[in-house]
Amino acid sequence: MTHRILVVEDQEDLREIARFALEGAGYEVVEAASGVEGIAKAERERPDLVLMDIQLPVLDGYECTRRIKALPGMARTAVIAVSSFAMKGDEEKARAAGCDAYVTKPYSPKQLLGIIRQFLAKA
Amino acid sequence: MIAASALRLCGAGYGQVALYDGALLHMTAFDNVSPEGVEALRRRFPAPADHGSAMGRAIHSGAVVQIPDVLADPAYAFKSEIQTMGFRSLLVVPMLAKDGPIGAIAVGRAGCGPFPESQIELLKTFADQAVIAVENTRLFQELQARNRDLTALREVGRAVSSTLDLRVVLKTIVDRAVALAGTDAGAIFYYRPEVARFELGETAGIDQEFIIRLRNFDIVAKDSGLGEAIAQRKPLLISDLTKRQSNPLRAAVIEAGFRAALIVPLLSSDGPLGALVLQRRQPGEFPQTVVTLMESFADQSAIALENARLFEEIARKSRELEIASQHKSQFVANMSHELRTPLAAMLGYAELLKDGTFGELPEKSIRILERVQANGKHLLGLINTVLDISKIESGQFKLNLGEYSLDSMIETVRVATESLASAKKLSLRTDVAEDLPYGHGDEPRLTQVLLNLVGNAIKFTDAGEVCIAAGTKSGSFVISVSDTGPGIPYEERERIFDKFHQVDGTSTKTKGGTGLGLAIAKDIIEMHGGRIWVESIVGRGSTFRLELPVRTQTSRAAA
Description:
heterodimer, A: 5 strands, 45% helix, B: 559 residues, Beta-Lactamase, 50% helix
C-alpha cells in the first residue's frame, strides 16, 4: 500500500523539492502551503506522516502539530518538524508540541527519506 | 603658668598675663591674686589698650613700663582694682612678636619704688619666652584648623572619587561644610539653565517642613542671591538677610530663623551647575578662611556633579551600544536564516537532478552538479558559522545533550573528509582506543568541532598525513588531530582561537575560511566543560588537543 505524506511548507520551491523526492521514492504526496490548509488536509486526507515546516506565517508549525495531533485518530501519526531556526530551545519546543523528529534545513532529500522510512516502518 | 613663674622669679606680689588682639587686652592668666582682686579684674577686662593701664602703655610704646606708685600716676585708671589687690608699684613688659605686640606681662608689689634692673631683664626674658609659647600655640591651633580643613577636604574628595551616587557625595559635602564652617544649616541648590531656575538638592540642619517649603519654591535665578552668586561667579556674603531687599525665598529663610548666608557658586567649564549655601541664625560676617574653604568645597561639588553627568552619559551610551549590538546580532542571525532558505532550494534541486529524479544525466552534467553542490555546501557552512557566532554573541547558543559514540563520530568525520584528503594526496589515519565509553554531549556540535579541526588540518597541510586519535584519561575523552603541515608560530597559539583571527593574511587568501571555526570550536568545547589547545613545531606540524568530559553536566551546557 502506498503511504501518503502531507507536506506543510509555505516556500513553494521547498515544497516542490519535497514532492519530487517523495514521489520519486514512491510515496503519495499531499501539499499544504499554510498551517490552516495543513490542518484541513490532515483531517480530510488522513496522511500516514506529516512533514511540518516550523516557520509558517499566521499559524506556526508548533501550533499546527498540536492541532493535527488532536484530530481524531491522528495522535499516533508521525510529525517530522523541519526548521531552519536551530535556535535555543527550538527542538524542545517542537518535541513539546508533539513532533516525533526534528530536521534542520537545508536537509538532503536522501537523508530525509531515510528518516521517513524509519517512521513508516514503525507505524 | 607663665604668670606664676614670672611672679616667683621676680619675687613680686602678683603676676598677670594679658593677650592683645589688636584692639583689646584679654586677661589670660594671673597668680597670687585674691578672689576679690580677680573679681575686680574680671569687671574691667577685656579692656582697651590705652594710656589708662600700664599694659596699654607697654603695648603702645613697645617698651618696658614701670609705675613706681600707682596712686601718684594721674592717668592710671585701675587705681581701685590695684588697691583692692593690695599693690602700689607695677612693672609691665610687652610681649613683642614679629608682627607687633601680642600681649603683656605685669608684676606688682605692695611697696613703692622702681624695680631693680635684674628683675626687669628677667621679666623681659620671660616675655620673649611667652611670645614663643603663645606663637607656638597659635601656630599649633592654626595647624590643627588647617589639618581639620584638609581632613574634611580629603573626606569630601574621597566621597567624590569613591562613589558615583551623586546624592551621597553632595550630602557628604553639605554635612562637612556646615560642620567646618560652624553654621547652623547648609544646602546645595542645582541650577537648571534651560529654565534659569534653582532646585533644592541635599541639605544639612534644615528641618523636613522647611525642606518641603523650599522644594515648592519657584526659585527664579535673577531674583535670588543664588542667581547673583552664579552671575558674579564668586561667593556672595550676606551678613544680615533682613537688610537685603526682600524676596519670597529670602522671607521664607528669615522666617525659618536664619539671619546670615554664604552663597558659593558651583561652576564648571560649561557654565554654572548650582550653588552651595551656608546659613547661620546669628547675623554677622563670615571669616575669609571659611569662605576660602567653602570655595574648595564648591569646587569638589562641581566635580562631583560633572562626574555624575559624565557617568550618566557613559552609562546611556553603553546601553545604546549594547542595544545596537544586540540588534546587530539579531540582524545577522535573521539574515543567515533568510540566506539559508533559497540555498536550501538550490541544494535540494541540485541533489534531485544529480540523483536522476528527472531522468539520467550525462556524466559531465553530473560532475558540474557536484561542483554546484560542493560550492553550495561551502556557502552553507559559511552561513552556519556566521549564524553560530551571532547565536553565541546574543546568548542563544545552547547545547542539546544526548548519548553519542565517539567511535562512530570519528568515523563520520573520517568519511566526510576522506575525499578532501585524497584530493591532496594526504593520508588520513585514525587511532581510536578500543572500548571507548558512550559519551554524553551535543553530538552534532562535537562533530562540527572535529570536522573543523580535520578540515583545517587537511586545508593547511600539503604533504604527509593527518591523524585523528582518541582515548580516555580520568573521566575525559582525550582527542587529538595532528598534521604534518607548516605549524603555528608560538605567539599565534592563543590568538588562533580568537574570532576572525587567522595566522596570517596570505594564508587566508589562499586557503579561504572565515577565521571563526576555531573560535566556535573553543566555545563549544568549553560549554561542554572541556578545553582545547594546540601544540606545534613550526615546519613540522601541529596537534590540536581536546580534553572533553565523557559526561557533560547539564549546568555547564546551559552556561
